[in-house]
Every structure is written in structure tokens, then in C-alpha cells.
Amino acid sequence: MKRLIQSITHYWRINLAVLLAAAVATAVLTGALLVGDSVRGSLRDLTLERLGNIDHALVADRFFRTSLAADLTQNQNFQRHFDHAVSSILLSGTATGSISKTRASDVAIIGLTYEFAQLFPGDAELRVSHDWVDSLLAQDNSPFAAVAINEALQAELNVKIGDQILLSFEQQSDVHRESLFGSKESQDVIRTMRLTVAYILPNHGIGRFGLRPHQSQPYNLFAPLPVLQQALDQAGKANALFATKKSDRSEPGEEADLTNALAEVTSLADRGLKIVDKADYFAIESQQFVLSEALSRQILACADSLQALSQPILTYLANRISPANDLSHFVPYSTISAFDPSVDLGQLHDSNNRVIPVLKADEIVLNEWAAKDLGVQAGDSVDVDYYAVGLRGELQTETTRFVVKAVVPMNGLAADASLSPEFPGISDADNMADWEPTFPVDLDLIRPKDEAYWDAYRATPKAFVSQETGQMLWKSRFGNLTAIRIGAALGETRANFTSTLSGIYTPESAGLFFRAVKAQGLQSSTGATDFGGLFIGMSLFLVVSAALLVGLLFRLGIEQRAREIGALLAVGYQVRQLRKILMREAFVIAGSGAIVGILGAIAYADLIMYGLRTWWLAAVGTSSLFLHVAPASLGMGYVIALVMVLFATWRTIRRLSKIPVPALLANVTHIESAKSGKIAIAVARGALAVALLLVIVSMVVGLETSAELFTFMGSGTLLLISGLAFFSAYLRRLRSKAARASSSIRSQQMPARNTAVFPGRSMLSVALVACASFMIISVGAFRKQMGKDVRKPSSGAGGFVLMAESEIPVLTDLNDADARFDLGFTDRESNVLQQSTILRYRLLPGEDASCLNLYKPEKPRVLGVPKEQIERGGFTFQGTLESTENPWKLLQWDLGQNVIPAIGDFNSVMWILHSGLGKDIVMKDDYGQEVRLRLVGLLQKSIFQSELLIAEEQFIRHFPSRPGFSFFLIDTPAEAEQQTSRVLEKALDDFGLDVTTTASRLESFQAVENTYIAVFQTLGGLGLLLGTVGLGIVLFRNALERRKELATMRAFGFQRKRLSSLLLSENSFLVLLGIAIGSVSALIAIFPYVATGDSQLPWISLAITLIAVFFISLFASALAVSAVVRTPLLPALKAE
Fold this sequence. Notes:
Among the domains are: 49-265, no CATH class; 273-504, no CATH class; 802-997, no CATH class. Helices cover 47% and strands 18% of the residues. It is built from 40 helices and 28 strands. It has a six-stranded mixed beta barrel with strand order 3-4-8-5-7-6. Strands 12-13-17-14-16-15 form a six-stranded mixed β-barrel. A six-stranded mixed β-sheet has the order 26-21-20-27-19-28. Helix 2 (12-51) runs antiparallel to helix 19 (540-559), helix 19 (540-559) packs parallel to helix 35 (998-1041) and helix 37 (1056-1085) runs antiparallel to helix 39 (1099-1125). The two termini are 38 Å apart.
């Protein structure tokens, strides 16, 4: 050990250099691993902060009683793993400053209770006091309720305490808005409140609350729960439940126990069903007006299992009933019920008290009042006019002709008003003239006799058709029945039915289910991108340069000890023994350097994290990323760096041990092999020929853009190989020629000729600089400027210049002038939009699947693509499952039950969702069923990087609860672009519509890629600069081995300055040649990018980097030359 320490300290200068080089390699490699840990750790911290003590969350589209939280807390299944549950209201809306007039969309509106605030005990303010919560909850019903907002929303709205804000959000509706009986008027869809800002909360703790995994700061507004309940007309109701676990660890069975607990405490009413009790039956109805087809099947199956009679009923509204071919005489606005009249649950009887049999498809039964008014009897034909609801809620009047089967008296089932459900805006009216229906009606058609019927019978049906006919005519995607009557006596049978149905129609089927938001958030915090691997890749050239530097320095140190090693071998030491001695020294030096490097790694990682928060903020979108040091990464980085450094030194020792002992005693440490260079010439010519051929083919044939880019990149790479091969052959030839030549050479030829003395080292130097220059310049070409040609159908915007997204869905067609008028557009505003084409997409909210989200998305956003887009085509596809002229039509494929054709953006699918063409993305539909989105096509750098795309028909089939359209693409003339944007945002301000250019959308995605490229170029530039230090060491080695030559030249009169100039010119020649070969090859490779103007090459920074490389190499070389020429040359001259 003593001898080892003496040896290391004796050569302390060179060993210190090796140690520092090993420290650099360790710092960069381990620092990259720490960057990955830091991003993951920061995302984990954000997850824990935004959720507080919330472990599971339930957010529903319907409201339920707030006491459900207390019932859940008392449930035994719940208490096994959970502590308590809290109910609240969670909405999304738009806020506008009443003074500043600035607007913020995607505002989270939270119903505040004391229990909810207690979910965030880590908040410093809440630990001290809950005064702000108490103050908000204690306020009376003032006209402008006091609320709290977080700092992010305050900054966006530019408001202060005491200012008022306007808050808009969607009004709850049990009835689907696109159905016939769904309200579509803006005043019914949008609720607006004027509120007063009373408190501004910091952007942490409760101020950062959010269920969506995203690193961006949410906009939060906290209003007292009673205030929101009153605004929504949902007293005592909530739409969100939050559950807190007893333990931070995941325990087996907790998910099942929570599901079972929810099933036990939720009644059928909580799940959206109404049970109406009658004397000899009870009826199952839906709060959503109609029973879904799946639910209807479950109820009927439940009745069959209990052997109870069941009678499905569908009641619809006819606009008019008239005698066939007689439009002048009709009964306006009548209800018609479709059911099987033969079921013994109250049967239809004719005037002779005979049971009406099962009706045929074209048969109808009229009551006495309607038959008398129309003047028809059994056997006559009548026409029934009614509204048919289209795919997008559009109404179209259709007519069906029936034959009157019978006329029934106004008693029994024929006079049962309960056959009709509660029609919104109709059933509660005292008179027909007071109707406020959700569809167009002409109240002038109502006669006094119609009012008299209403007074006597209300909405009692005037006609009856078969169950099959009703399904064929009036079944919709929202449901197929208005009620199901179950023939069972009250009491035990009803209780059995309710219990059985509760087991079939689970809370999950009704849209009530908990998500393990904290566990999913922590899992997502691992990130869609492995930042550790990313920065290792981007720092690879820097790591390799440091490793090469270690090898060069260690070899330099060994070569300085060549005579010592030769002497030891000469006196009997074995090569194996010397290798062990030298490797022990290397291990101590490298190990010490790696330890120093660990400290440097922490500083390096901290610097990178600072850069991500500031210089490279566009890549991460948050300033909440901070250093996290993981011991495992420190250990892994230490071991990897140590092994890498030891491998470099082992190769050096192994090569040196092959040199003969006499050569070592003579201080000769390098023996060049005599190679002719014929192979290099062949490689150079072949690569050059193929490169030229590819360029010629590309220019003459006219390849597609992608093929052209590939061709020129291949040409540039081959040109790089050719240039290096030619230089290798040149060096071999020059060395061979110099060995034979006896004549003198000119001084201008000396630098190039001297580089041939050690052709391997010279080749390594040029290749290092050339490859680095090629990579830095060529990768820089991928910094593109997107959005220049958005009007081209093949662009990433598909030919659309504007895109918009609304907080509240728009139910009507913005291309229709009448629809715009109904939405409040002025004539001038409507005329502006007349020259635009607007495509509307349905939107299923979810997680951002683009590179703008650092979290790994579990449930991506989904867009329903309209048929107009499918027929229109456009965009460029990276790949499709089947070659077709219009890949959008692949969305119309039938892939079987619960398999949906989908299209995604290539970058998002590959790098964020980690999926691919032909693979499935699994998610659940509105019925709780698992569906598979099969990727049949991938778009190339499109505006759809945040979502997946499916056909609108598939969207409606699997996600029917989502009404209207929230995403829009707009094609408008260039001169009207800004005006169109302003008009849309102004007219649809209450809907929270935000309009942006598609160009800016593409640029936001490209900014992330450009930022990563900038990081790579920065780190690559540092690696190149470090590599130039290696060149200086190569020069120093060359000069040391040429000391005899230099001493002879000094003896013949050469001055030190002259010798220094010659040595510097040799190194400058190598650096300049490497830069030239790499740069020219890179320019050929990126020619298409530069020619199209899409590339944003940072010419100035690239030039500065290359110039810095040249001058730093000169500086390093100058230090090496100075060290050599100042050493005594007399011993070398005597040896010569």
C-alpha cells in the first residue's frame, strides 16, 4: 500500500489530471441519472401536494345526496381501509374579471366545506388557522357571494381582494341536451354568477388542488358549497366524493371493499332511478327521462328472474295526428304510448270491454276523445307527425301512417296519465298555452278543446301503438323506454326486486365509481419521458469525451514511465504483475475521481434542473422542478463511471504491455503498423459514389418530402464516412511516401506531413471533431418552425388556420345563420362567420397525451371526428394499417364489439403513450364497459397531439352522456382570420370559448422538441470542447515522442517560437479539417430542411461553438507545446 501511495504521489500532476477527468465523466453520467430522479421526484411532490389527504375520488355527471359521505364513513367495508369521506361539488367553468375584463378558462370550481379544507393539513395557513374557511362558510346569502381564488387565477384575471368576477359554468340537466326534451337554450345551459374575491390562496397546498395529473398550475376557485348548490338548484346535493385512507400503503382488497361499501350505501335513487309505487305494480323510471337500452335489459332480466310481470313503456310526443290525406283537420301535440296492451298490468279494452290484442306494426289505437275529434273509426287510416332527432340533435319532422285498430273509452289504462313521464317545460304547466318546451312548437294551433282535454286529463296519451313500433320509431341513443312497470305487490317482492336490481345495476353502471387518484398520480409521476435516459443520451458525447480524456491522460502518464516499466520487465517482473500494479493505481485514482464526481453530479444535476426551470422552461412547462438526490442513482452512477474509466485504462495498459522491452527502455511507446490504405480508398470511393447517386436521384426523380429527407441525410452520412476514409488513406500514403523520400520539403507542407507520423492518432482526432460537428449541425436542423403552411391540406393543421375549444359544449351548428342568431350573434358578427367553414368535434375530457404533459397519461382525451372531416381528408399520415387514398375512412371500419378504430399523432402515441400502430388503448365507456381504441392510423406532427380520434358515430355509441361539441377547426380567409377569432370569442364568451391559431398550436409542440435539441447542442458542444482538450493531449504525446526530432531541429537553428508554431499548425490542421469534413457533410444532410425554410438552424450559436472549439483547441495545444518545448532537449539529442 505504501509503494502504491508513493507511486501515485510521485506522478501527482498527471494522476490529478486523470482524477479530474474521471470526476467529469462520473459527474455527467451520474448527474443525468439524478435529473431523471429529480423530475420524477418533483412530479411525485406535485401529486402529493395537489391531492393532500385525498386517496380516492368520485366525480359524477349526476348529483347525489351529500349525506352519502357520512353513510360511507359509517360503513364497515369502508372502515377497514379508509378513515372518512367528504362530499363536495366539483365543476369546470370560466372566470372573467369585472374590471380587467380578462378571462380564464378551465377554472376548477370547488364547493368548499370545512371537511374539504381539512383534507389539506399540510398547508401552512391551514395549520395556523381556518379563519378564511370559517369566514366564507359563515356568510349570509348576499347577492355577490365571497369566494377564494388561488394566486394563479388571480394573476390570470388581474384582480385583487374586493374585486368582482363573473363565473360561468354549465347548468346541470338530468335530461340529455341533445334529446328532444333536452334544453338547448343558452340561458338554460349556462349559469352565470357574480362573485366577490375575498381571499387569495398561495399556489400550494389547497391552492394547488386538482385531480388531473399535469405539472401546470391549475386555476382554482373555492365557493361555499351551499352557494353552488343554490346556483345549481341542487339543495343538499353533491357530485363529488373524496376518500382518505388510514394507511399510506396500498393494501390488498381495499379497492373491492370501497366498491362494496359504495354499493351498500347508494340507493337506486342515488343511481338515478325513480320507483313509483301503485296498488298492484310499481314503475321504474329514470331521472334522465328515458331508461338506457342496457339498463332496460337489466331491469327486464331482473323481473324475469323473480318471475314478475313486466310491461316496458315508451311514451313520445306527436306534433299532430290527422286523418290520412287530410292535413286540414288534426289534433295538435298529443302523447302516444308504445307498449304491449295484452300484458295483465292494466289492459286496454275497447267499447265492448274486449281486451285489445297485440298490435301489428302499422296499427294504432285511439282514445274516444281523439277519434271523435278526428272523425275516424276502426279501420280508418291516420297520419302521425313527430320529430325525429338526428345524430347531432337536429330535428326533422317525419310522418308515419297507421290503421286504426280500435277506439278505447276514457277509462282504465286509456285514462292513465302516469303513462306519460314528466315532460320538461310541459307537465308542470297549468295550460297548454303556458308550455315552455325544449323543441319548436306552434302554440297558435292549440284550440279550446285541447285546453279542456289538458285540464281534464293532462298528458294522458291519446293514442297507443305496439312496443315494436315505438322502438322502431322513437328509440334513441339516449334510451329506449320511459318506464317499466313491474307487476308485483309492495313489500317483500318489491324489496327483493330492489335488492336484485341493485346487484345488477351497480353504481359503476350509473357512473358512480371511485378512482385511486393518488396511486394513479404517483404511477403517472414516473413520467411519459425517462428524463434520466434522455439526458444520458444528450450528454453521451460529453461522457464519451470525458472517458477518452481519461484514457489519453492515463496513457500519457504510463508513457512517461516507459523506461521504468521496461526496467521492471527486464529485471524479471511479469507482464501480469505489472498490469495488477498499474490497475491498482488506476482503481485508486479512478475511484477517488468518481467520488469527487459524485459531488460534481449533484451540482451538475442541480444546474440542469435550474435550466429546466428557466432557460428550457418550454420543454417542461413548470418551474416546480427541483433537485432530488437518490442514493441508488449515486451508487449506480459511481459504479458505471468507475467501470467505464477502468475499462479505458485497462485498454491502455493492455496496449502498452505489447510493446517490446527494448523499445520501452528506449522510451518508445508507440509502434505504427504499416498499412497501405487501399481499403480506406475503396471505402471512400464507394461511399462518395453512393452519396452522389442518392443526391442525383433525389433531384432528378423528385422524391416525396420524407423520402428526400432520408436520402439527403444518408448522403451526408456517407459523405462523412468518405471524407474520413480519404483522410485515412491520405495519411497512410503520405507516411509511406515520407519514408521513401530523401528530398527536402517546403515548410508549408510540414504540418500536413507531420500529421502522418502517427496516422492513427491524427485519424482519431479528425474523426472526433468531424463526428461531433456533424451531429451538432445536423441535429440542429430538426429545430423547425412549424405553422408556416397551415393552409395546405397536407400540413399538420390539415388546412385549418384556427382552432377553438369551449368550456361548455355548444349544441348547435355554428355554420348555420339561424343557429348563430339563437346564440346571440349580431348580424355583423354572423356575416363575418359566413365566409368561414367550422368543423365541430365531440370531446371526451381526459389527460393531455402530448409532450406538453410530463405525467404519463392514463386516460387520454378523445375527439369524435365528424363525417365532414372524414370525407374532407387532409393532414399527413406517418403510417396506416391499410394503404388507402383517404386514411380517415379507416375510422369507419367495423372491428367488432367494443373495438373502436382510432387515429393518433405519431409522436404522442410512440413516445408518450408508448403504443404503436395496430395496438390498443384500453379505457372504459359510459356504461363501465371496457373498450379498446385500436390505432389504425398515425398522423405526422399534427395539431392532434393531445388526443385520440374516433368517428363521431363511435363516440356517440360509447360515450352518449357527453352532449354537444367542445372542439372546433375553422377554415377562414387570411384577411378575416383575426376578425373571425374576435367574433367567436366575444359571442361565445359565456361558453368559455378560446380561439387560437393552428400555427401557434404546432409551434407549442415544436418548441418542446426545439428546446431538447438546444439542450443536446449545448451538452454536445461541451463534449466537443472537452474533446479538444484531448486533442491537446494527443499533440503533447506526439511532441514527447518526437523530442529527438525537435532536439535535432533546435541543433540546426530552429527557435522555440518556430517549433511551437509548427506544432500548433499541425493541430490546427487536424481541427480545421475535422470541422470542415463534419460541417460540409452535415450541410449536405440537412439541405432539404434548409431549402424548405422549415428549419430554424441557430447559425450564430453553431458558428460560435465551432469557433470556440477551434480556439480552445489552440489554447490546449499551446499549453501542450509550451510544456514540451520548455523541457530540456539535450538528453534527447544525446540519445539521438
